[in-house]
Amino acid sequence: MKEFFRNTWKHRAHVVMALPAFLVLLFFAYIPMSGLVMAFKSFDYSKGIWGSPWNGIQNFKFLLASKDIFVNMTLNTLMYYVIFTAVGTFLNVVLAIAIDQFVFKRCAKVMQTIMIIPIFISYAAVQFIVYAFISTDTGILNNTFGMNTKFYITASLWPIILTIVKMWNSVGYGSVLYMSVLAGVDTELYEAAEIDGANKWKQIWHITLPALIPMITVMLLLSVGNIMRSDTGLFYQVTRDSGTLYDTTQVIDSYVLHAIFKNSNYGFVSATTLFQSVVGLLMMLFANGLVRKISPENSLF
Amino acid sequence: MSGKKKMKNADLAPSRRQRKGVGQYILGFFLLLYTLFCALPILLVFIAAFTDEKAITQNGFSYFPEKWSLDGINSVLRYGKQLIVSYGVTIFITVVGTLVGLLIMSMFAYAISRPDFRLSKFFSIYLLIPMLFSGGQLSCYIIFTTYYNLKDSLLLLILPLCVTTMNVIILRTYIANSIPAELMEAAKIDGAGEYRTFFQITLPLLKPSMAAVGFMMATTYWNDWQNALLYIKSDSKKPLQLLLVNIQKSIEFLLNNANVPASARAAMGGTIPQYSATMATVIVVIGPIMVVYPFFQKYFIKGLTVGSVKG
User: Fold this and answer.
1) pLDDT in tens, B103-160
2) Radius of gyration (Cα) for chain B, nearest Å?
3) Distances in Å between the alpha carbon of A120 and those of A116, A170, A234, B107?
4) Which candidate from A95, A104, A123 shows the least CB-CB separation from B34?
5) N or C: which end of chain A has fewer CB within 10 A?
6) Could you tell me if residue B289 is inside a domain?
7) In this structure, what CATH number is given to the domain that contains residue B124?
């Protein structure tokens, strides 16, 4: 113990250096965690989080009882996670391989620059672009194809729309990681394969893809930790928080944001948040454990 | 795996596969298609901003508008006093947030990467937990506004985003892998104190990694609309993204404000060029990032790559 204090005193300068970030995390990450006790209280604004009376698991009972809202948004969250992860990973890998195979490198670089740009456009701006394409009267889609689809009130179309928007936004960016793996593949492997008479497809199948598998596995597993979180902007901004679309567009994060503005039942909302945080934590621990088994150098902790 | 070597390979375009067969052109065609898919929506913003308002309301948005017009841009630029204020706010939070964040995260990363510093284990775990578990939006909202009394404060736009676990890990990995510990030892032997060693030896060497992290942070700050929507009420503190979120209101606010002369309003035919003005505002908001990004692309890609490998 004495040894420990002596060591800390010796490193007091380092303690001081770590302090600012320590405090920021304390006030903006740790203390808000305590707010989750609201899930077990019936929240009253005037009494604050601590003063509000306890009500046991009342909120959770309510959560389970209101199936349509809670189950619906949880299922939506999971559904979009699966769609985005499956389609996203596939496109990331295809794009990375395509750019890697392309011999006109300068041209590829310019294209890649353009492909990455959408990730830098906030959803607050993206929603206007989407609107320009799919608004009923002025939208390009309706005008070009002579349709009269009312996109903003047709819930069934939104899984497709949101997937396209999300892919537009993130595939160029997501493929960068895979490309850096491909750049590290030993070129002699390809040369040897060519001498052995393997064509391009065979080379991709037997050399390129296997090289990517570890990274794909790791990225997939690590994304599992965020299974309950969504790109709030995508679901809140791009859909214009339109109530008629909630069936297919409401996810937990957008629901919570919406609820904060509506000042609705905070007990219910905080029970949802607690559920979200706990499931996220469990998934993260599970995923990290798996990654540590498969490739220890990529595990987070 | 050393990141440096990989980047070199990527730059030098390995000599393999030099044959430019038909396949290459087909591949190029598909890549071009995807590039267009990414670029065309952005192009539409620029075209719509310069399209005559009537052309949009009558014929809809189009890549080949019947009539061009500067009304949208003009109305935003000329009467957009709020726009200038919001630009100021966004630039302020981006610059201050990025610089403060970089400094305190580098210090933290440096501290926890010191060998034989007993507390560094505790700090590392302390850093990791927020990535695993969070209080969620609602508790943040209530605690920030009622307990910290920070409603309508720019601090809430800056501080919650300024330390992120992933960024500290990237910086720490760089310190561990790319800055030789002997340098720090040598400085100490020469009599430099801890602070001096950090600010004069480590910090300058940390620049490439800081450029990558800094660019990502700046983008986050620039694009953050959620915190602004939750916490900011007064017009003088509205960042650009919030202006976009409230655009319907904003355009009216921009144009029906006292400082729009009646003659000007009459000249616009009494109507607000809503669609084109909206798109013009979008350009103003997304423009700077698109201009700056190509210069940072190199660091940015490097940062992404480094971040994927734990130290």
Assistant:
1) 999 999 999 999 889 999 999 999 999 988 999 899 999 999 989 989 899 999 999 9
2) 25
3) 8, 9, 13, 28
4) A95
5) N
6) yes
7) 1.10.3720.10
A contact residues 201-220, partner B, Cβ 8 Å cutoff:
215, 218
To the nearest whole Å, the CA of A156 is away from the closest chain B CA by 23
Contact in structure between A227 and A281 (CB atoms under 8 Å):
no
Residues from chain A contacting residue B128 (CB–CB below 8 Å): 300-301
Q: Which two tokens stand for residue A34?
A: 């305590």
Q: Is residue B66 part of a domain?
A: no
Alpha-carbon span A182 to B59, nearest angstrom: 47
Tens digits of residue pLDDT in B274-311: 788 889 989 988 888 888 888 888 777 776 665 544 43
- Residue B113 counted as domain residue: yes
Nearest chain A residue to B241 by CA distance is A124
Evaluate whether A98 touches B255 at the Cβ level (below 8 Å): no
Residues in contact with B165: Cβ distance below 8 Å, sequence separation at least 6, in sequence order:
B127, B128, B130, B131
Task: Classify A59-298 by CATH class.
Answer: mainly alpha
Using only C-alpha atoms, what is the Rg of chain A?
24
Residue B308 · residue A177 · CB < 8 Å: yes
ipTM: 0.87
Are A237 and A224 in contact by the 8 Å Cβ rule? The answer is: no
Beta-carbon-side half-sphere exposure of residue B67 (alpha carbons within 13 Å): 12
Helix (H, G, I), strand (E, B) or coil at A249: helix
Contact A38 B138 (CB under 8 A): yes
| Helices (H), ranges, chain A | 2-10, 12-25, 31-34, 48-51, 58-65, 67-101, 105-116, 123-134, 140-144, 158-183, 187-195, 200-203, 209-224, 232-236, 246-249, 252-262, 266-294
